Structure formats: structure tokens, C-alpha cells
Amino acid sequence: MQLDIATILVSFLITWGIGLAPPLVIRYAILKGPMKKWPAIATCAGLWICNILLFTALGSTSKTHTALTFVAFVSYWILSRGEKQKESAAQ
């Protein structure tokens, strides 16, 4: 396996692009607002499982899928960001 800068950059872009596209579409195109805590966690867990299956099917040999775990945390942040301000404004 060759680890040059181009391979690492393409791998980074594919992982983060595929991983963050669904939460961005859900948050900004479908819901047009933040999700509550538990629905956001459930959505991220489902997306994480789908990403593991997708990258395994693409030939990933990672045992831990650490990058996909980071993607799941960022996905949660994207989906739930602003929920506290939304709740405060509603009161």
C-alpha cells in the first residue's frame, strides 16, 4: 500500500465527504433546523453503521474505523447545533 500525500488527501476527502453529506442534507435541506438530542444521536448511530458497511464494501481494512467515529461526532454537532438557542427562543 502506497501512502503518499495524494493518496492520503483523496482518502480524507472521500471519508469526510461521504460521511458528512447525509447530515448536511438532513439538517439544511430537509429539516431546515436543528434536531433534538436523542433523535440526532439515533440518526448519527444509523449513519455510522451505514458508513461502516459502505466503507467495508469499498474494501476498507481498518479494524477501528476511527475516522468514521470522528465523522459521527461531527455529524451529531451538525444535526444538533443551535437546538439550545431554539428552545430558549420558544420560551
Shape summary? elongated
- Portion of residues in beta strands equals under 5%
Number of helices: 4
Arithmetic mean of pLDDT? 89
Tell me the distance between the termini: 56 Å
Bin the helical content: over 70%
How many runs of DSSP E, i.e. beta strands? 0
Structural class given helices, strands, pairing? mainly alpha
Radius of gyration: 15 Å
User: How is the main sheet built?
Assistant: none
Order of helices and strands: HHHH
Uncertain spans, ≥5 residues at pLDDT below 50?
none
Task: Tell me briefly what this model is.
By secondary structure, this protein is mainly alpha-helical. It contains four helices and no strands.
Describe, in plain words, how this protein is organized in 3D.
The structure is a single chain. With 91 residues, the chain is mainly alpha-helical. The protein has a domain at 34-58 and 66-91. 78% of the residues lie in helices and 0% in strands. The chain has four helices and no strands. The protein has helices at 5-31, 37-57, 66-80, 83-90. The longest helix is centred in the N-terminal third of the chain and has 27 residues, at 5-31. It starts with a helix and ends with a helix. The mean pLDDT is 89.
Which helices and strands appear, and what pairs or packs with what?
Layout: H1 5-31, H2 37-57, H3 66-80, H4 83-90
Helix pairs in contact: 1-2, 1-3, 2-3
